[in-house]
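Example record

The entry below shows one chain as it appears in the dataset: sequence first, then structure tokens.
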Amino acid sequence: MSDAMTSMTLYTPAGVLLKPVALTLAAKRLKALGFDVHIDEAARARHQRFGGDDDARLAALHRVARQAPGIALATRGGYGLTRLLARIDWKLIARSIENGTRWVGHSDITTLQMGLLAQRKGASGTITWAGPLACDDFGRSDEDGGVDEVTRDCFIEAMSGALQAVGFRTEPGFDGLEVRGTLWGGNLCMVNSMLGTPYFPRIKGGVLYLEDVNEHPYRIERNLLQLHQAGVLDAQKAIVLGEFSAWRKAPQDRGFSLRTVVAHLRSLTKTPILTGLPFGHVPTKVTMPVGARVTLLVDGSNVLIGWDHVHTSTHSHAHAHP
């Protein structure tokens, strides 16, 4: 980080913290990385399966926006932001971004990111960051693997403004592909749940990235088919699939898999579908600007997603996932 420590607020907008000690550990580790960490007053609140009741979580979201820290990092995902969509002050969120706040997260945070893009409809103050969660990624115990180095380094570089691209490897067959469009998407179930609502961004010519967890391939296919049948997939310039983790094979699958799901979708849409993005509910994940204009390039099996400066910086860097 730069000499001036970047202020960071850890807040809980969705699910209840499963292990409150993870928040303490995450704050300690993030401070050691050079961030000026503040834990929101309601971060450890509990109500049913939520990190506080709806009013408390909405107040926390607005409180963080008014404080406009350098980084607003959600403690975890889970479920809960869908309940708040109609009450969120989207102008307040956008104003905090204009004042320099980088809202970071994934999983249920997809709901906030997509809602902002839809409600602001291309206005300023809509770029957020797909990236780690405080407890999941920085609060993981050493016994469970600790902090992933790629995730940590990519996050630090993105937050400092130094990161301008992420790279990964995909399947053969896309060599020479070059597209430019708005990067958007996130958790597949959350994206799909917003379809047909005022909180679904109607983006055409974009680069749609998707990931999910605990979803069998047939559920993933069903969600993707709904997006396809709604015209969403055909309207994009590229679809980039991240990790679909923590699912179990069923006896009746008989060869049905994520690979066959992707093959079937490729037979239906003209839009290129790339796999291999290191992002999702896995330890290793990149950090990317949601809502930013990006360029996607494929050289052989190497993919590069690059963007212009989202924040002022004197250096640029591409972080390639090995």
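Notes for this example: The first helix runs from residue 20 to 32. The chain has two domains: 6-147, 163-320.
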